[in-house]
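Q: Predict the bound structure with magnesium ion.
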Amino acid sequence: PIPGSEPSAAEAGPGARTIRSHLEDPRAADVQAALAGGELSLAYQPIVSAATGAISGCEALLRWNHPILGPVPPASFVPLAETTGAITPIGAWVLDTACRQAAAWPGTGRVSVNVSPIQMQEPGFPARVAAALGASGLATDRLELELTESVLMRDPAAVLRNIRTLRALGVSIALDDFGTGFSSLGYLQQLVFDRIKIDRSFIGALNGGGTSRFLIRTMHDIAHHFGMAVTAEGIETEDEARTLRELGSAELQGFLFGPPLPGDAVASLLREQGPRRDEAARQPRSSG
Ligand code: C2E
Ligand code: MG
Ligand code: MG
Ligand code: MG
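A: Predicted complex:
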């Protein structure tokens, strides 16, 4: 090789491969340190009622500001955190932070937290959730956990047990990215989901013609048959919003209604909105 150039992995012997792969993908090494380094934060995306347009909840979305790379999207670092095991402490931090921030919001809106299959398989997970609720003072019915179909691929019995324990606490469970997984639909008969979230890939395909509309309609039929509510994700246009309302979505989420926002920005949005009509009817005004 040219003098002074890097030796190849083969020349450098065993061990060099690991070092090289870390140099090529610094995220694999750094994701472990991101939590302690204070590089993680949560953004909250509004979810609105299809009927009234009022914000009924927010989804907490993990953000990582890498000191050198800048923002790294969760779709690339969450899988890394899952393989390294870092998802367990990171997931616990997400849960604690989302509950604490949501408890300080005005109103009684929900906060939805994405949970990794790795977290969901741990027998101690429901206790972890109960601790986050207890420490924050957030009412249990204001927390929703979002799981993807892949959660049931390994050890479904353990996962179903955890889901049932969590629902008994009053926490609701949403099935995220519905229709994009590879698992059987038979699990729906277990009746452990309160809601399905229709993946935005179906919404984005709406302009393409009839097939997607048919699939979306069928997903609503399935959800309603099993007593589940529907949230449509990734709504970007008024046309899409109108179609999803027609097809029976209870809630809508997407850039049309708002991007993921920092916690304080979402708090002022909720303050501006004031009490929802149904809340206002129940709560006497403190002044005026
Ligand atoms: P997800 O749970 O399905 O979240 C929705 C994703 O769609 C978010 O991407 C959101 O920013 C994006 N989105 C929302 N509305 C629109 C829209 O109108 N158009 C388009 N093009 N995109 C929209 P994000 O924040 O990059 O998150 C990606 C995925 O990373 C999430 O998908 C979720 O699976 C995972 N994730 C995020 N936060 C966490 C977390 O705290 N824990 C775990 N385990 N996974 C997380
Ligand atoms: Mg989600
Ligand atoms: Mg989703
Ligand atoms: Mg997703």
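A: Strands lie at 40-49, 55-66, 70-72, 110-114, 143-148, 172-178, 195-198, 229-232, 251-253, 261-262.
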